[in-house]
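Sequence dictates fold. Below is an illustrative record:

_____
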Amino acid sequence: MLRDKQICIIGTGNMGEALISGLISSASSKPKNIICTDIHEAKLKAIREKYGVQTTPKNLDAVADSDIAIYAVKPQIMAAVLNETAEKLDMSKLIISIAAGVPMEAIESCLNKKLRLIRVMPNIAAAVKEAATAVAAGKHATDEDIKLAMTIFNSIGKTVFIPENYLMDAITGLSGSGPAYIFLIVEAMADAGVKVGLSRQEALFLSAQTVLGAAKMLMETQEHPGQLRDRVTSPGGTAIAGLATLESGGLRTTLINAVEVATNRSRELGQMMIKNFSNNCPADPSAGR
């Protein structure tokens, strides 16, 4: 379904390159069917030599020849790139945005035309092909479009479809920002390990592997985390003593508050982005050319 589609990836930063690597290593797409753009010729040369994909510095040319256009650019320049490529965007193409914090409403208002639009929120773990990715669809996107988007992003991790577009702010607060929370937890656990006598290297390895193993158990067993926690906590044992300390320190409440605050901040930034797009996108997509 995806292998015969021409895909352009606009922007070959960390996320753009992760997508190229994932699509090729998973055999979801052929290198000859992928064309990438970037403002840095040296980066395009490196990408071309490493993955065997097509490259061009011209966004408009890449979009024109593609069935699927993936916008992997910084949110600050998204409006400018959309304007640059608007004339080649229509219902014949699937448009996917991974520009962080840019709501679908901003893109739709900027282009002011019917489009098969998908918004995707992956996270930094795409770099190791373990991204947690949420997919949301615009009103003109089809079921096949959603499947295509999920196939693309399953190449760099695991995806979930979110029917309610407004929940993308919650996704940003939870899984988009979530790796930062986990990195802090792992660092704190490693500090604790050093405090009780382990070397820094040993403590950091054990902390990271513990998080990895616990996550894998959750994913593979599909058991509730409370059930798995109970399997670790023996009466009067070490785990329950540690858990009691975490609860008294408010870890659960703090994490809940962190996700809520990050969600609210994402919503605020999204509203700012909508205003920014309305100021920088012409009401008529053909205007200004």
Summary: Strands lie at 7-10, 34-37, 54-56, 68-71, 94-97, 116-121, 131-137, 157-161.
